[in-house]
């Protein structure tokens, strides 16, 4: 028979042999449990790391989309503000005149005014009037107010007025509309 260089343990009794075998199994179980625990913890750590990296990389396009949508929202809010301002301006009365004016040099001397005064806003213009100033050589000859009354939004009134004055020809005049909202 060939002898091998394997250490032999000889036991005196059957109970000692069983006890040695149980201790060997117990040591092997502890080692395997420790090894499996280490592998599981390592696997969890590695999986957590890669999952975090994937989530961060997956969120990058979403973050860009969120920033883009926030910029679009900001632009839309600015446009809404501009549109609201434009709408408010359109609602306000907007008095526009379309008048023919001439200096009539026959007795009685007068400034003849004829034409339309319109409200091109949405709301009614109240107490509409025309402030008329007559000039001769840069000096005020006469100041007067032509009362028109209220003009509803989107409508106009036709007027004919003669503003009398004395003296020589006029050099200039101004007609300025005014109203209350």
Mean pLDDT: 83
**Structural class determined from secondary elements:** alpha+beta
**Could you give the distance between the termini?**
126 Å
CATH superfamily of the largest domain: Immunoglobulins
- Encode the helix/strand succession as letters: HEEEEEE
Low-pLDDT parts are: 15-21
List the defining traits of the structure above:
2 domains; alpha+beta; 181 residues; Immunoglobulin-like; 6 strands
Task: Outline the structure in words.
With 181 residues, the chain is an alpha+beta fold. It has two domains: 12-91; 95-180, Immunoglobulin-like (Sandwich), CATH 2.60.40. It is 43% helix and 35% strand. The protein has one helix and six strands. It has one helix spanning 14-91, and strands at residues 95-104, 110-119, 125-136, 139-151, 155-164, 172-180. A three-stranded antiparallel β-sheet has the order 1-2-5, with no helix packed on it. The longest helix has 78 residues, at 14-91. The chain is rod-shaped and about 135 Å long. The termini are far apart. Mean pLDDT is 83; it is low at 15-21.
Strand and helix map with partners:
Elements: H1 14-91, E1 95-104, E2 110-119, E3 125-136, E4 139-151, E5 155-164, E6 172-180
Antiparallel strand pairs: 1-2, 2-5, 3-4, 3-6
């Amino acid at each position: 028979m060939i002898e091998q260089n394997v250490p032999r343990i000889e036991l005196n009794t059957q109970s000692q042999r069983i006890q040695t075998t149980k201790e060997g199994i117990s040591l092997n179980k502890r080692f395997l449990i420790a090894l499996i625990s280490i592998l599981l913890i390592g696997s969890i750590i590695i999986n957590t790391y890669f999952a975090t990296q994937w989530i961060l990389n997956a969120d990058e396009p979403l973050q860009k989309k969120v920033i883009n949508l926030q910029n679009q929202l900001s632009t839309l809010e600015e446009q809404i503000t501009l549109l609201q301002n434009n709408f408010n301006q359109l609602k306000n009365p907007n008095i526009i005149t379309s008048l023919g004016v001439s200096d009539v040099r026959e007795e009685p001397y007068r400034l003849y005014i004829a034409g339309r005064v319109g409200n091109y806003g949405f709301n009614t213009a109240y107490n509409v009037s025309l402030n008329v100033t007559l000039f001769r050589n840069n000096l005020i000859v006469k100041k007067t107010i032509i009362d028109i009354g209220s003009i509803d939004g989107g409508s106009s009134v036709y007027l004919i007025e003669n503003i009398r004055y004395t003296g020589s020809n006029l050099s200039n005049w101004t007609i300025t509309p005014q109203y209350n909202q």
